[in-house]
Amino acid sequence: MSLWNTLRVALKALMRNPSRAMLTTLGIVIGIAAVITMMEIGNGSSTSIKRSIEKMGANSVLVLPGWVRPAGVSQGAGTAVSLTPADADAIGRECPSVAYYSPIVRANSMQVIFGNSNWIPAQMYGVSPDYMKIRNWELEEGRFFSEREVERNARVCLVGATIVRELFGGRSPIDCEMRIRNATFKVIGVLKSKGANMMGWDEDDVVLAPWTSIRIRVTGRRSGSATSTSRTAASTPGELFSGTGIALYPEQDSSLTKDKLLVPRFTYIDQIIFSAVKPDKVGDAVREVTRLLRERHGLKYNQDDDFRIRNSADFMKMLNNTSTMMTNLLLVVALISLIVGGVGIMNIMLVSVTERTREIGLRMAVGARSRDILKQFLIESIVLCLVGGFTGIALGHGAALLVESQLNWPIESSPGAVVSAVVVSAAVGVIFGFYPAWKASKLDPIEALRYE
Amino acid sequence: MALIELRNITKTYYLGEMDVPVLKGITLDIEKGGYVALMGASGSGKSTLMNILGCLDRQTGGDYFFEGEELGRASGDRRALIRNQKIGFVFQSFNLLPRTSALENVIMPLAYTAGDLSRKECKKRGIAALERVGLADRMGHYPSQLSGGQQQRVAIARALINHPPVLFADEPTGNLDSHTSEEVMQMFDELSAQGITVILVTHSMEIAGFARRVVRISDGEIKEDYYNRKEGNV
Question: pTM of the predicted model, to two decimals?
Answer without folding.
Answer: 0.67
